[in-house]
Write a structure and sequence with these properties.
With 265 residues, this protein is α+β, with helices and mostly antiparallel strands. Helices cover 28% and strands 28% of the residues. The protein has a five-stranded antiparallel beta sheet with strand order 8-7-9-14-15. Strands 1, 2, 4 and 5 form a four-stranded antiparallel beta sheet that branches. Helix 3 runs antiparallel to helix 4.
């Protein structure tokens, strides 16, 4: 990952706010269209068109050669699922959608990228109550992690808050992937794990005012073990149990966390 970026000006914050609202809106619109009989490719085509029509760029498309606008991960797929014309959503599925939006803007004559990144898991039609609980619990874990984003606290405080939920509820917590800082590049330091033992091996990081943090827990109904599919992208649970993923982009302010990926009132 690149260096940690600390933003200073209200103009920069406002560009991130705009990118975050766009990311939240397109995610909401995609999830409304996630219905039985719809392909994940249909969702991707809609999302790319929507983003470009709003004067922005799909962050993921072309990033490290990723081929699509959305990551669409169904059931046992955890993250990085590639949309496909043959992946048709079915009643009872759960779908994790991850989307990034990039705005290009100038501040003091210098052009830069401003990125909003968010994800959520939704049921497709009626699904098992256990799946609904998984979705509710991961959202709760995310929000508890967000609450730790105060200047002077540490990244380990975020990890601890999230892990307390996964541990208490008996979920497998994915350890190979986590959140990240956001700067002009999509992935920047610090890495934000969803478990505290990470810091037995790696240095912790103090949270500072002006950081943009993408926090994203991933909980599995079974174990936390994962494997990568032959497409080179899609990450699935090794035991084929279902997984959920939630994410917000957060601006660290003097007063605490400001969630950027929220819908406008």
């Amino acid at each position: 990952m690149n260096n940690i970026f600390i933003y200073k000006t209200e103009e920069e914050f406002n560009h991130f706010r705009k990118a975050g609202r766009l990311a939240a809106k397109v995610l909401d619109e995609v999830c409304k269209r996630a219905l039985p009989g719809v392909s994940t490719w249909d969702l991707d085509v809609f999302a790319e068109s929507w983003i470009r029509d709003h004067g922005a760029i799909p962050t993921f498309k072309g990033y490290l050669e990723f081929p699509c606008t959305l990551c669409t991960s169904v059931n046992q797929e955890i993250v990085h699922g590639i949309p496909s014309t043959i992946r048709i959503l079915k009643e009872g599925d759960i779908l994790s959608v991850d989307v990034g939006v990039t705005l290009v803007a100038s501040v003091n004559g210098k052009e830069s990228n401003y990125i909003g990144d968010n994800a959520k898991t939704v049921p497709i039609g009626e699904t098992d109550p256990r799946n609904l609980k998984l979705i509710a619990d991961i959202k709760r874990g995310l929000l508890l992690g967000v609450e730790q984003c105060h200047p002077g606290r540490k990244i380990s405080d975020i990890a601890r808050a999230i892990e307390e939920v996964s541990s208490k509820e008996g979920y497998g917590c994915v350890k190979e992937f986590g959140g990240h800082g956001i700067g002009p590049a999509y992935h920047c330091a610090p890495f934000i794990p969803n478990f505290v033992d990470y810091f037995r091996t790696y240095d912790d990081c103090v949270i500072e005012e002006g950081m943009i943090l993408a926090i994203e827990p991933m909980f599995n109904l079974g174990l936390g073990d994962i494997r990568k599919m032959k497409d080179g992208w899609t990450i699935v649970t090794r035991d084929n149990r279902l997984s959920a993923h939630y994410e917000h982009s957060v601006l660290v302010t003097k007063a605490g966390p400001e969630i950027l990926t929220v819908l406008e009132d």
